[in-house]
Design goal:
The chain is 42% helix and 15% strand. The chain has five helices and five strands, in the order αβαβαβαββα. The protein has helices at residues 8-41, 57-63, 80-92, 109-116, 154-163, and strands spanning 50-51, 67-72, 99-103, 135-140, 143-149.
């Protein structure tokens, strides 16, 4: 029986292919871990809407009197399911330019409530209880016209947004 002689270049090609595959797997694993950490520490909607600091709200409301402010802790895992639904709602209704996000991680909640109460009307005020709270503020003419908690149903949110002219009636 004759033995077949396999050329050395075939072994080299195989080794390079295996090495490339192993390196690609480690790179993708690192990318996955980094992405997961990013989304665990930030809001789901951060890549959909613009982020604002609490010091900038007054200037923003002067320049853009009608907008929606979503406030939450980026690391609160309990509200991630709501934020995923909110993100779909924002994209479906093309509200990217109308909604802002404020991360509560480095914000003193009491100071924030006092600051936002300057924009409050009789019907709506800021009432966050702690950093794990979340809320949606609808600004009309530079004032808070409506406040909603994150436990609101998206169908009800759609009705509220329609009533304030943020989205059009179907």
């Amino acid at each position: 029986m004759e033995t077949k002689n396999i050329p050395l270049k075939n072994y080299i090609i195989l080794a390079v292919a295996i090495l490339f595959t192993v390196l690609a797997v480690f790179y993708m694993r690192g990318w996955y871990i980094t992405t997961k950490e990013y989304y665990d520490n930030n809001s789901v909607i951060i890549d959909t809407v613009s982020e604002i600091n609490n010091d900038e709200i007054g200037n923003y409301s002067t320049d853009n009197p009608n907008f929606v402010l979503y406030v939450s802790s980026g690391s609160n895992a309990d509200i991630k399911p709501f934020e995923k639904k909110l993100k779909k709602f924002i994209l479906k209704n093309d509200l990217r330019n109308n909604v802002l996000y404020l991360n509560l991680e480095n914000v003193d909640v009491n100071e924030f409530n006092n600051y936002l109460n300057k924009f409050a009307t009789e019907n709506a005020n800021s009432s966050l209880s702690d950093k794990n709270s979340s809320a949606i503020y609808i600004f009309q003419d530079g004032k808070i016209a409506k406040t909603m908690g994150s436990n609101i149903d998206l169908d009800k949110m759609k009705i509220v947004f329609q009533s304030y002219g943020i989205i059009e009636n179907d």
